[in-house]
Amino acid sequence: MKLSYTKRFLKSAAKLPKTEQVKLAALLSKLAESPDHPQLHIKKLQPPLADYYSIRINREYRVLLRIVSPEEIILTKVGHRKDIYR
């Protein structure tokens, strides 16, 4: 599975606390192996974000992504759950 990153994702990932950055790296390796991995807690979002999916890093932080093909995923944003869906 190919993972692509937007500039927005990379910038916001760099601003995460170090503990969440470590968890994010572990989750991204699992995502690259299999998007159906149970530890990802992946969910399809509702409109207006119907083209996006969410992965839970922990109770507070989420990753937004788009699955563009069975072989490619674009990671678009990472942040606190109160801000990520805006």
CATH architecture: 2-Layer Sandwich
How are the strands of the biggest sheet laid out side by side?
Answer: 1-5-4-3-2
Bin the helical content: 25-40%
Order of secondary-structure elements: EHHEEEE
C-alpha end-to-end distance: 28 Å
Query: What structural category arises from helix and sheet content?
Result: alpha+beta
Separate helix tally: 2
Per the CATH scheme, the topology name is YaeB-like fold
The fraction of residues assigned to DSSP E strands is 25-35%
Keywords:
five-stranded mixed sheet, alpha+beta, YaeB-like fold, single chain, 28% helix, 5 strands, 86 residues
SSE layout and pairing:
Blueprint: E1 2-5, H1 7-14, H2 18-33, E2 43-44, E3 53-56, E4 61-69, E5 72-80
Parallel strand pairs: 1-5
Antiparallel strand pairs: 2-3, 3-4, 4-5
Give your account of this protein's structure.
The chain is α+β, with helices and mostly antiparallel strands. The termini are far apart. The chain has one domain: YaeB-like fold (2-Layer Sandwich), CATH 3.30.2310. It has 2 helices and 5 strands. Helices cover 28% and strands 33% of the residues. It has a 5-stranded mixed sheet with strand order 1-5-4-3-2. A hairpin with a 2-residue loop joins strand 4 (61-69) and strand 5 (72-80).
